[in-house]
Amino acid sequence: MTQHLFVTQGNDDIPRWREAFPQARVCRPAQARAQAGHGDHVWVMSNVDDWGVLAANLSRRNAIVAVLSYTPDSEEALQALACGARGYAHALASPEMLRQVQLVIANQGIWVLPELMAKVVGSTFRALGGESRVQEETLSALTQRERAVALSVAAGNSNKVVARELDITERTVKAHLGAVFRKLQVRDRMQLILMLSKQPIAAMDGGE
Amino acid sequence: MTQHLFVTQGNDDIPRWREAFPQARVCRPAQARAQAGHGDHVWVMSNVDDWGVLAANLSRRNAIVAVLSYTPDSEEALQALACGARGYAHALASPEMLRQVQLVIANQGIWVLPELMAKVVGSTFRALGGESRVQEETLSALTQRERAVALSVAAGNSNKVVARELDITERTVKAHLGAVFRKLQVRDRMQLILMLSKQPIAAMDGGE
DNA sequence: TCCCACCCTGTCCTTCGGTCCAATATTCGG
DNA sequence: CCGAATATTGGACCGAAGGACAGGGTGGGA
Fold first, then answer.
1. pLDDT tens sequence across A141-183
2. Does residue B119 sit in the same domain as residue B170?
3. I need a labelling partner for B115 at 20 to 30 A (CA). Which of A18, A182, A199, B146 fits?
4. One domain, residues B102 and B151
5. What is the pLDDT of residue A1?
6. Which among B194, B196, B206 is the nearest to A148, CB-wise?
7. Half-sphere CA count of B172, side-chain side, radius 13 A
8. Which of B106, B126, B146 is the C-terminal boundary of a domain?
9. CATH number of the domain that A116 lies in?
10. Residues with Cβ within 8 Å of residue A149, at least 6 apart in sequence
11. Within B 124-163, residues with CB less than 7 Å from strand C
């Protein structure tokens, strides 16, 4: 029968855990190490000493591990995932959210705090140096002028600054930008930044 | 009402999809681009032209995107995730598995082929190393609420959307955001996005 | 108890961003 | 020569963004 364990060290107050999983048991790291096995669900607090090692051990034994943190950050999230944990959430998340996490990881999914997700995933691809032609493809759909405007805007410049840079009117910048939005199918400059920020701009030719 | 779309280009045979999601509709990329929006579930075949761009657009519109491939590999999986897809599976996966994927991603999880999972997660952590530590440090200067606002804004959301997300008024969002700007010493949300997505966008204008 | 940090909200105001309606000049291919 | 695409600018309009005020509430520490 599958167990459901909460691993903690101090005497953390865990009303939400209790509420989310009434059938779960609270235990110490040592007990979890000894008892948990295949199919068991184990929640590990990130304030436990060597929680990473513990998570790695448990997940290696095919336990389903989620890490909970009072101070979630993307680095810790990545570490948790690297240690085999399949979930990473705030320790004080609502019972509904905890159950959602449980549902996801029980179905072979990964669950990470939504706010961290973008960074965890987003930075991955860049760091890997993966070549995505997304950028060049999208940019190649633009005219030279539109491209220049788009890149300047993506660098965080205001329309006014772009206008000065390219020595045109702010009005013209808006016109080009409108075309860029249409062609790249984005709503506003923020989405443009996010789209262009997905990849480092490798070799931008000044035109061709 | 949330739609359920399959995006494909050729006339792929999709008996398993049909079986898994009888209520789903098959459509072309253009249709998906036009119709899909918030909360919709969209399955994109990786043999579609510019599937990455499509996935990025859809996920940016808060659609729930999964990518299906006839020849899954970790590289493509990473690309899919980088484009905002939350699921990556084999196109010929069993209906049960497809439904599992759907269940997971509908609950804010991410689902990647188990065989690829280790590779994806592993390479992520290694590649990141200590790089994204800067952000954590800068973010740690913020209060919980400010951080939540900052991250949401950095994800490209408008103040209105952030307000809805956090269940506060738009005014409060502005207040927090003002504090964020002060603490991180940035002028506006554009600079914030650039800081948090820490991208070496060489601000080169294609200028002549 | 008082102070301070945090969280939430309000109004007024200015600037910026984006889209709608135009118009004009140039270049380039059929 | 004629249309199509590109580059440029104008004006009007409206919503979003952000600062300058001015409060309200909580909880913890001196």
1. 788 889 889 988 988 899 999 999 889 999 999 999 999 998 8
2. no
3. A199
4. no
5. 65
6. B206
7. 13
8. B126
9. 3.40.50.2300
10. A162, A166, A173, A176, A177, A180
11. 143-146
